[in-house]
Write a structure and sequence with these properties.
This protein has one helix at 117-125, and strands at 10-13, 21-32, 38-44, 47-48, 65-70, 74-80, 89-93, 101-104, 111-113, 130-138, 143-150, 153-157, 162-173, 186-193, 198-209, 212-224, 226-232. The chain is mainly beta. The strands form 2 sheets. Strands 1, 2, 3, 4, 5, 6, 7, 8, 9, 10, 11 and 17 form a 12-stranded antiparallel sheet that branches. Strands 12-13-14-15-16 form a 5-stranded antiparallel sheet.
């Protein structure tokens, strides 16, 4: 799939009470090899819980991170409070999320796949926007996914001709079983890789902190993967 221009890709809700616009932070395409169907899930940028259009005191007192994921039929809303929240994730029909959405997804006009470590480093030093695609699959379920995201942090080592992507959050899909609805396979994660053939993920999950439980990026997953990196050129 052609990488998005993530600086210009958004979606906007249709509800008259709040036509809210979200930045698209990552895109996950899930492909069913048995049926040929593919669906895109768009993970939006995070915001904080607020009293929308109030006269003052705009942030809620018991505040939490608010992050939606939009799919073709169903979506997810993540609400991360300071302590473990039983309403951390909510699945609902996409049509009920701000009464539906209008997508404004802009494909990058000029892209160049970076096929070598040197090309990756040179594009990094040239300050070009970088987009990665990480492809994973599960042969038992027949599901495949392409996770696409702008690279926010890129480590490099000139003398060793090495790089390492470290970016998130992304919408990570559990392909180990067939969820219904499919959006329930998605968790929030960060991704890292420094080679074409594998990717490491750290998923947000219930985590013990002393005697308390919180949601934190703590569950480590390493998978065979096909990683591709692109430079978005002016």
């Amino acid at each position: 799939m052609t990488p998005l221009d993530y600086g210009r890709s958004f979606l906007i809700g249709k509800a008259a009470v709040n036509e809210v616009r979200f930045w698209v932070e990552s895109r996950t395409r899930i492909i069913d090899s048995r049926t040929g169907r593919s669906d895109d899930y768009l993970q939006a940028g995070s915001c904080k819980s607020e009293m929308t259009f109030a006269a003052r005191d705009l942030f809620q007192q018991d505040n939490y991170d608010f992050l939606p994921v939009f799919g073709p039929e169903h979506g997810l809303i993540f609400r991360r409070k300071a302590a473990l929240n039983p309403m951390y994730r909510q699945t609902l029909p996409a049509a009920r999320m701000w009464e539906g959405q209008e997508y404004h997804l802009v494909e990058a006009a000029r892209i160049r796949e970076l096929a070598t470590n040197q090309a990756i480093r040179e594009a990094t030093y040239a300050f070009l926007p970088l987009v990665a695609q990480t492809e994973i699959r599960d042969e038992a379920t027949g599901l495949r996914a392409i996770i696409e995201y702008p690279v926010k942090t890129m480590n490099t080592h000139r003398a060793r001709d090495m790089y390492q992507v470290d970016t998130g959050p992304i919408a990570f899909p559990d392909l180990g079983r067939r969820y219904e609805p499919m959006v329930d396979c998605i968790s929030l994660a960060f991704v890292a890789f420094n080679a074409p053939g594998f990717a490491d993920f750290v998923l947000e999950a219930p985590t013990g902190v002393g005697k308390e439980q919180v949601h934190h990026y703590s569950r480590l997953v390493s998978l065979p993967a096909t990683n591709r990196l692109y430079a978005v050129e002016a």
